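To: structure desk
From: M.T.
Subject: fold request, one chain
Message: Could you run this one when you get a chance? Sequence is below, nothing fancy, just the single chain.
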Amino acid sequence: MNPQSQPHGAELSPDSALDSESIQNMVSNKYAVWHDVCRQDVFSSVQEQIDATDHGASLIDARGFILQANKSFSCALAHDISEIIGANIFSVLPEDSARLWRHGLTKAAESGRSIRLEMSGNDGMYEHTVYPVGDAKREHNRFFIVSRDITEKKLIEKERADLQAHLLQSQKMEAIGTLAGGIAHDFNNILMGIQGYVSLLLHDLKKNHHMYEKLKCIEAQIESGATLTKQLLGFARVGPHETRPTNLNAFLAEKAKMFHRAKKDVLLHFDLCPSLWTVRIDPHQIEQVFLNLFINAWQAMPEEGEVHLETRNIYLHGDELNSMGINPGPFVRISLSDTGMGIDPMILPRIFDPFFTTKKIGRGTGLGLASAYGIIRSHGGHIRVNSIHGKGTTFFIYLPAVDSPPEEKMRRETEGALSGREGILIVDDERQIISVLKEMLEILGYRIFAAGCGQEAIAVYKEKHDEIDLIILDMIMPGMGGGKAFTLLKEINPKVRIILATGYSVNNEIQKIMARGCNGFLSKPFKLDELSREIRGVLDSPVADQDLHIL
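Reply: Done. Structure tokens follow.
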């Protein structure tokens, strides 16, 4: 019987090449009539058309036996063509693949509709489209398969997904950064008020006083609160930076050994590049990153374990950068691996999310890895993780390399509070801050002027500039902020000495102002002796030769 005579059939023309379009037309009616397909001459014509298509193609019966196939289809199955013709597809494939094929063929037969299967072949990923083919009784007893290599498509999809994930993470961090900045500003002002009055009390008390140790305990709690705020600012990428060229080999070795002194049951292994390029980092922030990673590695190893630390010089370019969001060029790559339990694949995509933690309530804030992510991104770098559940985890950190050699910057370390008699203008919108700073500075001997906003500061300085030797300027104020006030004060007197005092900055504004000739910086909350040393460091130094002191 001629298939064209059947009202429910699809024509298989022996004179036309079997491409995707003709196959689609052939199977457009789910009740295609193929009851004559068993004839040898029809089989021959089918094989010709199967061989002519650019894709993999095959004809399989209801029991799974491969009746016809081309070489491309055999490659998709990772077998030679001679091995699969006449063989059962369920027997030549691994158990998992065979199970997927069985399910697909059954579903196609029951529904009468084409279905798609995706699985790996010998050299990539393949998409198999299964078209059910029926006989005159409308029973689907044959399946026509078209197979396409989708390896490149899957790679593109993965790159797109990685990029989207990166963008989502960046947007998430930006949103939380805005919130964190606002919280940090208010919280640090609260801490500054507490710290200021504690410093005043400690200044008046002798060390043997029964209240002295209690006040020191309060001071320690203030420091804990300030550390938590710095973590918030770290992943928010709005914290102040003091960067310097650094060779990471010595830096990391020191931090690793410090960790090992506390966790001696962990074996440390080093593989450090002897000619490692220089990077520009904020040592305090990068220290926070690696201490977090060391602690996470230790916690992932309930018993004895090993940590491997490796440094390498690499160039990043092209496809490597698609999902990183960083510029091409030379980088230093640091890898830190442990032999711990690994990370559950279900939670792996969330480990850099702020406040996400698998630790028990009270055992962690969920800020460690989120903070690490923000710090590394703020340095122009990237952090990623590979983990095999039950075997271990490796963190990879990429930091841009610089040409300048390492240099050590010495900070002034003086015991005790230093006094003075100069005039100081305090500019802050928080009256409580002005009040406590005024008391702190007056106890040191300074003459104090005060302004509650940028506009008032300009007015006071214009009137009293001959009496004002130094200005302590808050960054975040309503109306005229610290940045604008700084500009106007410099216009009045280019040699005016200014110390910025704030809990956070926006868009690296502190760095920009420091580059324009600001004389110092104080991070709230600060102690009386820290305040006094910074003031004396600025006042006692020539204007043109003043260094930045981060406290």
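Reply (cont.): Residues 255 and 290 are 8 Å apart (CA to CA). Let me know if you need anything else for the meeting.
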